[in-house]
Amino acid sequence: MTTGIYDDPWAYELACSFRDVRAEVDVLLAWCAEHSGAPVATALELAAGPAEHARELARRGIGATALDLNPAMCAYAAERAKFAGLDVEVVQADMTAFDLGRRFDLVVTMLDSTSHLMTLDAFTAHLDRAAAHLADGGLYIVEMSHPKDRLTDEPSVGTAWTVDRDGVRATVRWGEPADRLDPVTQIADDHVTMTIAEDAGEPRVIRDVVPYRFWTATELDAAIRLSGALAVVARYGDFGDVALADPEAWRMITVLRRARPS
C-alpha cells in the first residue's frame, strides 16, 4: 500500500486524466485574446503538479514555466516535459512566496489548487505574488471549485470517478460523506482512495487525507480587495460562456489583471 497522492505524480496525473487539457488551454488563450488582446508569449502555471497545462502551452510555442512546492511533482513534470521534447522550466517554490525575477503574459492556477491556501493571509500573499509576475496587460486566471459543491445538497461535480488510460484503469474517490467542513476554519480533511488496476498483478491502492480549504466567492473578493494588486476582469462558471450564477456552472473561474502599474 502506498500513501500520499501528491507524492505519486504518475497516479495523480492518471486520476486527473478525465480533464481535457487541450480544450481548456484553447479557452484560456481565447480569454487572453478577448480580455487582453496581446499575444501570449510566456506563461506561468502555479501549483502546477504534473504541469499538464504548462506542457500544453509549451507545445504551442509559448515559453512555459511550472511552479510547485512538491519535489516529486517537480521532478515528474520536468521528466514528462523532457520526454515530450518540450521546453518547460520547472521551479520548486511556495505559491505564496516566490520571486522568479520576471513577468509573464499569462499566469494560471488550475484544478482548485487554491484550496491549499489555508488562511486569508496566505491567499492574499498568493495574489500579491501572482500580480508581481504579470506583464503589462497580462492576465491571471484562477480556477476554483464552485461554491455549491460545498454549500448545497446538489454538488456540480462528483467525488467518485473511473478513468482508463493506456491499459490502466483507476477508480478514484476524493472525499467521503463523513468528511465534514469545519464551520469555523472552513477546512475539511478529504479522505482520498485510488485503486489502480493494470493488466497483470494485484491492484495498487493509494490512501491519503488531504486538507481542503473551501473558499466562497465573497471570500475570494475579500482576498482580492485586501491584496489590492489585482482587479477582476471576468468570471465564468466553466471553460466556456456559462456565467458563475448559471445553474449549469460547475467551476468558479476568475480572470484578473494588475490593478495598477508596478
* Whole-number mean pLDDT: 94
CATH class categorisation of the largest domain: Alpha Beta
Largest sheet: 7 strands, mixed
User: In total, how many beta strands?
Assistant: 12
- Please mark out the parts with pLDDT under 50 across 5 or more consecutive residues, or reply none: none
Cα-atom radius of gyration = 18 Å
Characterization of the model:
The chain folds into 2 domains: 2-148 and 214-258, Rossmann fold; 149-213, Single Sheet (N-terminal domain of TfIIb). Helix 2 packs across helix 3 (52-59). It has 262 residues and is of the alpha/beta class. The mean pLDDT is 94. It has helices at residues 9-15, 21-35, 52-59, 71-83, 120-132, 148-151, 217-227; strands at 2-3, 42-46, 63-68, 88-92, 104-109, 134-145, 160-165, 168-174, 187-197, 204-213, 230-236, 251-258. A 7-stranded mixed sheet has the order 4-3-2-5-6-12-11, sandwiched between helices. A 5-stranded mixed sheet has the order 1-10-9-8-7, covered by helices on one side. The longest helix is centred in the first third of the chain and has 15 residues, at 21-35.
Q: Helices and strands in order, then pairings?
A:
Blueprint: E1 2-3, H1 9-15, H2 21-35, E2 42-46, H3 52-59, E3 63-68, H4 71-83, E4 88-92, E5 104-109, H5 120-132, E6 134-145, H6 148-151, E7 160-165, E8 168-174, E9 187-197, E10 204-213, H7 217-227, E11 230-236, E12 251-258
Parallel strand pairs: 1-10, 2-3, 2-5, 3-4, 5-6
Antiparallel strand pairs: 6-12, 7-8, 8-9, 9-10, 11-12
